[in-house]
Amino acid sequence: MLHFDETKGQWINEEDEDETAARLASKESNNNKAELVKLKKTIETLHEENRMLKLKVELLVDLVIEKGETTD
Predict the structure, then answer these.
(1) Minimal CA–CA distance to 32: which of 24, 55, 63?
(2) 1: helix, coil or strand?
(3) Is the pLDDT score of 60 beyond 80?
């Protein structure tokens, strides 16, 4: 709320409790959204790393099987 403070000779802008709560909630919401975006990227990275590890394991299993077949 804007009002003139005669003792200071200037306009003062004071937020009421609802405005303050709304501003803080908006800031928290933005922080939560940013955190969710970071978490989503982390999950995507972990999925990709997991996929690569599975491929490596499959290759190693194939190599072990081939090695076993050649020694028989």
Answers:
(1) 24
(2) coil
(3) yes
